[in-house]
Inverse folding.
């Protein structure tokens, strides 16, 4: 799993190098133009802002809270929550080999498969956290957002764990925010710990305290 | 295969019978010519045929006994067919044994058993005979012994107190050993004794040890060294029992009441009745650790121990405790302190107690000198009139433990305060004449004031704390003051002020009348001493200590990680505990909490390849 502080650019999977024939270059130029037009359709003042994303979602026939939008953001290596810059848009769409709406629609369902493969998913998972850090030097995300995010990102895969964890996060009072380490710990927990018996959970290991507490709570309330 | 003539059982049996008759005679040593080969073959074939022909004429089962007999005459040719082909029919050896069991053993075993029981119940029996017989019956006898003792122990456990039970059990074991040595083979002895021990001691161990009136705990309480040693001797031999016993005595030790005494007592037990068994010393240590670190009624032992010391040292003033006695008791305390893991907590409590003791010391040996000096100073300096009587206890910082105190605001522009401030100023000046370069810091939270209050009916002397006096003093100037006015004028914390106002307006003596959010002076009721509800200082101490511990854990972790760069979680924990163990034992949860903090603060990070390992970023 990549470090929290590592450069985001390096964390996405490598794409095949662009083909460099002159033909391809002119075709590429045309494509680049199309991508630019595609961008302009949603952009407002040189950037796709939240309104633009809502419109885009409507065109893609997706809810804007759909996990696939988050996946698209991951693929575009978007930095700021709710915005796609022109640069992000163009590089991203090029790697997706997409230049219009219908292609993007198709690519997004492919993208979901790509994200669900293990190494990508781990990267996507930590991206989801970092993407929601909106303030300068912000390191934590409030519990409420975390619950929604968990539901969105891990929900389909680990329904029971996520439901119980959200229940717990809402009743506990020790934590108001979650940091990246805890966030990654949750992912590791869902992947490694047999559920619901929690047989292989070992408190003497370096699990974040919040998970120790969660396990205590589970053992008390759900046995 | 040629179809053989079918032999009917009766017909065959008659023939075989003759053979058996002959065989019997041979076996019994009568004069009888040996079997000729023809005779033998004929017999064999008949039996073989009878045994191997198809059902319903298969007679192998019924012929088993003849087979056995034939085999005994030493012709091992017989009946592989019979025993191999038809598995449901017992083989020879088995069959023979079965016969023996049914005919001889069953008939005898009850008698043998009865004989043993009779012997147990003290009837004279022929031991030599019994010994011979019992050789065969070892297994059976063991079983029987079990049930015998199981029966009587059930009986005893119900009606006998623990020491009696143990005495009886000891007696039984002794006799059983003795019995065994006389008529059982040596390998039987161990087994038998084991059985008896199991029935008498292991099965009822818990019940026995926990007997309320007479169990282990009672023995400890009653200093019954004899019985305890017996108990120990029993359970020493039984491994599992010993462990159980240890656990039990642990918990018993734990239940014992606090004080400095128990350690000595138990030490004595260990050396005297438990033969200094190393396990016991360890157990005692463990037990003591557990017992010392338990909280009794919400008070941690650290605190209790501090209070205990305080009481001893306080007593030295009025009750005549000799210096030696005090010294001795304190030495015991130190011994116990070894087991306390929260030494930092003890230190904190002790410091507070020391502070109080120094200030409230009735003999005031430390303060007296100052006081007489101050009085003299006042007498000779007419212009330095203090206005009110003031006695000050001055302690050099060397005596003075660290004492956090929120201090009263005594601003000089506040006229109301003038008297108190004047006092303080006068004393300061006096102090400066005596010493140079010494700074006085006032701990008004520990002060006490005697105030003459003029109530409507009569004047009453109030004995109150300095803080309370300060509040009342405010109301000398105005009749009504709001809470916020009081708090800004006195510079007290919210918690303190609420407590103070509460004591003056809501508790027994309502000196101030409280209105929804205004307070005004009125005179009513008579009061002498206004009790101030004690702050729950304990909670605050514990919080303070906890905070100090956080820093200690942080510092230790960072230090360890700086030198090690990369370290597994568990190693980090154990190294930290080692580093900090002298002062306290960090709880694992607290530790994890700090690690979480250190990760957020970028001192540490989880090692990407192994989430149980940390890497130093500092």
């Amino acid at each position: 799993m990549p470090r929290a502080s590592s450069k985001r650019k390096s964390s996405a999977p490598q794409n095949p190098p662009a083909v460099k024939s002159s033909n391809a270059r002119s075709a590429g130029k045309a494509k680049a133009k199309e991508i630019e037009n595609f961008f302009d359709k949603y952009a407002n003042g040189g950037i796709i802002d939240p309104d633009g994303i809502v419109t885009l979602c409507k065109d893609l026939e997706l809810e804007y809270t759909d996990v696939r939008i988050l996946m698209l953001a991951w693929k575009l290596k978007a930095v700021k929550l709710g915005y796609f810059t022109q640069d992000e848009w163009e590089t991203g769409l090029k790697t997706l080999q997409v230049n219009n709406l219908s292609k993007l629609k198709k690519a997004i369902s492919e993208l979901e498969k790509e994200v669900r493969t293990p190494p990508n998913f781990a990267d996507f998972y930590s991206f989801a956290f970092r993407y929601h850090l909106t303030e300068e030097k912000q390191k934590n995300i409030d519990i409420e957002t975390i619950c929604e995010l968990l539901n969105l990102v891990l929900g389909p895969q680990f329904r029971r764990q996520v439901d119980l964890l959200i229940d717990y996060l809402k009743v506990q009072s020790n934590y108001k925010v979650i940091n990246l380490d805890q966030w990654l710990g949750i992912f590791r927990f869902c992947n490694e710990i047999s559920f619901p018996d929690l047989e292989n959970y070992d408190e003497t290991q370096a699990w974040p305290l919040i998970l120790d507490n969660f396990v205590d709570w589970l053992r008390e309330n759900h046995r | 295969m040629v179809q053989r003539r079918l032999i009917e059982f009766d017909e065959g049996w008659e023939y075989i019978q003759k053979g058996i008759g002959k065989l019997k005679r041979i076996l019994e040593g009568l004069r009888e010519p040996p079997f000729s080969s023809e005779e033998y073959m004929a017999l064999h074939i008949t039996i073989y045929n009878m045994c191997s022909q198809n059902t319903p004429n298969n007679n192998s089962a019924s012929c088993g006994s003849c087979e056995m007999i034939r085999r005994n005459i030493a012709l091992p040719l017989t009946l592989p067919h019979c025993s191999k082909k038809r598995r449901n029919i017992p083989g020879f050896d088995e069959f023979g044994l079965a016969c023996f069991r049914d005919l001889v053993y069953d008939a005898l075993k009850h008698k043998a058993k009865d004989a043993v029981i009779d012997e147990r119940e003290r009837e004279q029996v022929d031991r030599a005979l019994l010994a011979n017989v019992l050789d065969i019956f070892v297994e059976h006898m063991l079983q029987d012994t079990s049930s015998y003792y199981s029966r009587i122990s059930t009986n005893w456990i119900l009606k006998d107190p623990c020491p009696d039970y143990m005495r009886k059990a000891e007696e039984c074991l002794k006799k059983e050993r003795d019995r065994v040595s006389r008529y059982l083979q040596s390998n039987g002895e161990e087994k038998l004794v084991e059985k008896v021990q199991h029935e008498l001691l292991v099965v009822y161990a818990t019940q026995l040890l926990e007997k309320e009136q007479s169990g282990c705990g009672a023995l400890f309480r009653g200093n019954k060294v004899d019985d305890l040693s017996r108990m120990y001797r029993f359970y020493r031999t039984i491994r599992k029992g010993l462990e159980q016993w240890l656990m039990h005595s642990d918990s018993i030790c734990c239940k014992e009441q606090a004080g400095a005494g128990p350690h000595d007592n138990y030490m004595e037990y260990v050396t005297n009745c438990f033969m200094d068994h190393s396990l016991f010393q360890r157990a005692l240590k463990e037990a003591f650790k557990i017992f010392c670190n338990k909280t009794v009624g919400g008070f941690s032992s650290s605190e209790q121990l501090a209070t205990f010391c305080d009481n001893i040292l306080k007593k030295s003033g009025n009750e005549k405790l000799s210096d030696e006695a005090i010294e001795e008791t304190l030495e015991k305390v130190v011994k116990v302190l070894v087991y306390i893991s929260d030494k930092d907590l003890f230190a904190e409590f002790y410091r507070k107690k020391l502070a109080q003791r120094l200030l409230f010391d009735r003999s005031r040996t430390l303060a007296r000198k100052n006081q007489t000096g101050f009085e003299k100073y006042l007498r000779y300096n007419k212009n330095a009139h203090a206005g009110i009587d003031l006695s000050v206890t001055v302690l050099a910082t060397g005596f003075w433990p660290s004492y956090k105190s929120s201090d009263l605001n005594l601003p000089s522009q506040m006229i109301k305060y003038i008297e108190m401030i004047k006092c303080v100023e006068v004393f300061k000046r006096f102090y400066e004449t005596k010493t140079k370069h010494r700074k006085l810091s006032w701990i008004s939270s520990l002060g006490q004031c005697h105030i003459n209050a003029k109530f409507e009916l009569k004047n009453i002397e109030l004995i109150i704390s300095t803080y309370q006096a300060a509040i009342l003093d405010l109301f000398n100037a105005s009749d009504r003051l709001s809470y916020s006015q009081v708090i800004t004028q006195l510079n007290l914390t919210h918690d303190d002020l609420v407590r103070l106002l509460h004591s003056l307006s809501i508790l027994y003596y309502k000196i101030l009348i409280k209105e929804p959010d205004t307070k005004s002076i009125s005179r009513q009721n008579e009061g002498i001493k206004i009790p101030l509800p004690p702050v729950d200082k304990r909670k605050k101490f514990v919080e303070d200590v906890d905070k100090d511990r956080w820093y200690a854990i942080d510092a230790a972790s960072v230090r360890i990680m700086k030198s090690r760069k990369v370290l597994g979680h568990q190693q980090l924990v154990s190294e930290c505990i080692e580093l900090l163990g002298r002062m306290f034992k960090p709880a694992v949860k607290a530790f994890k909490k700090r690690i979480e903090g250190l990760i957020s603060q970028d001192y540490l990070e989880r090692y990407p390849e192994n989430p149980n390992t940390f890497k130093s970023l500092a």
Summary: Residues 68 and 113 of chain A are 10 Å apart (CA to CA). The first helix of chain A runs from residue 8 to 11.
